[in-house]
Amino acid sequence: MTMKPRKVPLRKCVACQEMMPKKALIRVVRTPDDGVLIDLTGKKAGRGAYLCGKIGCFKLAKKSKAFDRALKLTVDPVIYDQLEQDFIAVEDEFNAAKERDDDDDES
Ligand SMILES: [Zn+2]
Fold this sequence. Notes:
Elements: E1 10-12, E2 19-21, E3 25-30, E4 36-39, E5 47-52, H1 55-64, H2 66-71, H3 77-106
Helix pairs in contact: 1-3
The structure holds zinc ion.
Zinc ion is lined by residues 13, 15-16, 18, 52, 57.
């Protein structure tokens, strides 16, 4: 890759409020039909909220209803439960992909 942007886009985790590079965060998107989904591609259309790739931050977001505020939507507790399961399912994959990316940067 020759075109490496110098400025890393930062986003804030909705749970712990930490600013992080976009690719270190998992995006949660509000779809046009008011669904809420985890968006690993980061490219789905809709209002997005960002979260560290850590289940601890998800639990914090769930407890504080951070997605309700970030997505300007009343998120049903059932949706939070579903998202939590999805989050756990993608967490390992996400962190593995992140580590592979880091290796690429060094080589
Ligand atoms: Zn966080």
